[in-house]
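Archive entry. Fields below.
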Amino acid sequence: MKRAIDLAVHNVETGGGGPFAALIVREGQVIAEATNTVTTSNDPTAHAEVNVIRIACAALRNFQLGGCDLYASCEPCPMCLGAIYWARLGRVFYAGTRMDAAAAGFDDDVFYRELEKEPALRRTPMIALHCSEAAAPFRAWLESSIRRPY
Amino acid sequence: MKRAIDLAVHNVETGGGGPFAALIVREGQVIAEATNTVTTSNDPTAHAEVNVIRIACAALRNFQLGGCDLYASCEPCPMCLGAIYWARLGRVFYAGTRMDAAAAGFDDDVFYRELEKEPALRRTPMIALHCSEAAAPFRAWLESSIRRPY
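PREDICTED_STRUCTURE:
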């Protein structure tokens, strides 16, 4: 965790992006590390946790990271938490909290609270369009002989 | 939305990945479209919504997409919803629901319910490590003259 915090501080000092870093560890070995690069890569999804998951998956040539743990300098936001679940990571350790992030101007806590609201009442409205074909992709999926579930 | 659904079906038929697609629209113009490529790019974050946000941001050379709307063939998962917030998208339109996705074997709804639990009680445990240096990255951020908030 000390390494994650040091990387996060260094990322700020070098203008790499937000004050966040993360590592992925498997059986005591660090297999990937990354910092937040949102502003330097023009990618709002380039949080440290998303970046480190992508690096680790590329290294392992796998879209799942079962048996790996993630160390994050700060509590993951809802996007990163979702990414952690999809990557099937084992455990998540973190140091700073969403409140520490809020005090520094970040919206992690705001977004957690948005998720608790009814979809149609959120600040970014979620509008269900009723399409007769909405289920067609899922029908195609279930009928496909080449599908690869994840 | 018809285009998103057609792309999602095509993605299944061509083995591109999961049965999902998304478009980003600004002032009536499609500025990006993408499908899910999780299994073909070995990237658990490569959902259609995340992919289309990355493509649109690269095209606009901006890490925010204010004034743009997202059309998704299915209700975004928690990861994608977080990405949508960080991208500051205006509105989200979707066709299929998390229940349709669950019926086809996808964990979107499971993960939404995980987020409602206390962090320590989740299936992927979130463990806060109390580090004296946890606030150091945020201190560095607030003191930085080159920081670029997002």
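CURATOR_NOTE: Residues 10 and 129 of chain B are 45 Å apart (CA to CA).
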